[in-house]
């Protein structure tokens, strides 16, 4: 009997390591939940982002460009947070092929370190990254960078503006063609508007109108509840 008990014994330090892991994961989930809730206070127009229900460390987003060289672009991206966030920054890549100095032309990886050379927990947040992702398509200073993932794009902007503009137009056109092409596990999926969607829209129009705060609060509660269901199930 004593031998059987010894065989089933689990080292105490194993529980300690597991406890540290669970505590770390709990802190990460709370941190990302809080940051996501705060996003609505900043009203970052033209940017939509939604975490995965089964993994809050993955956020899918889309940037809608309203003016400038990339006007009309529908650029999809993904943010992946490390387990030690916010001590270390997330990684960002664009699912849409985009001609831009800070975006790798083959992998779609975004050069976050070019702007956040020394990421600081408590100073840099997700909202800062989202603002940057939006600004790189509007501010000329980002078009001429030559020490990032696509230096050729930065060089072209400074030496052949018309060529750069033409490549931007191509990027926008491709993003529109791929608007309904969704990654299988994406939390944000675009679908063509159908009769079914029209019926849903008509039903929503006939419901009593809620205030904006009620709408946001309802969505927030649903999303947080779904995360917790997946986390503890």
TrEMBL record:
SUPFAM superfamilies linked to this entry: UBC-like
**Where is the UBC core domain positioned along the sequence?**
27-177
- Record-given protein name: UBC core domain-containing protein
């Amino acid at each position: 009997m004593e031998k059987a008990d010894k065989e089933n014994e689990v080292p105490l330090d194993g529980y300690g390591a597991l406890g540290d892991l669970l505590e770390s994961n709990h802190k990460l989930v709370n941190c990302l939940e809080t940051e996501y809730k705060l996003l609505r206070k900043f009203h970052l127009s033209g940017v939509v982002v939604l975490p995965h229900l089964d993994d809050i460390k993955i956020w899918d987003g889309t940037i809608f460009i309203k003016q400038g060289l990339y006007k009309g672009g529908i650029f999809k991206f993904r943010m992946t947070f490390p387990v030690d966030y916010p001590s270390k920054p997330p990684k960002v890549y664009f699912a849409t092929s985009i001609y831009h100095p800070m975006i790798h032309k083959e992998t779609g990886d975004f050069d976050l370190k070019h702007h956040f050379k020394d990421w600081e927990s408590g100073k840099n947040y997700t909202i800062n990254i989202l603002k940057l992702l939006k600004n790189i398509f509007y501010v000329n200073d980002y078009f001429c960078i030559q020490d990032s993932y696509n230096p050729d794009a930065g060089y072209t902007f400074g030496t052949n503006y018309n060529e750069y503009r033409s490549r931007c137009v191509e990027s926008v056109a491709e993003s529109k063609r791929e608007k309904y092409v969704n990654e299988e596990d994406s939390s944000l999926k675009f679908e063509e508007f159908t009769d079914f969607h029209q019926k849903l829209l008509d039903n929503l129009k006939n419901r009593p109108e809620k205030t904006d705060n009620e709408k946001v609060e309802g969505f927030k509660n649903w999303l947080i509840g779904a995360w917790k269901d997946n986390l503890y199930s």
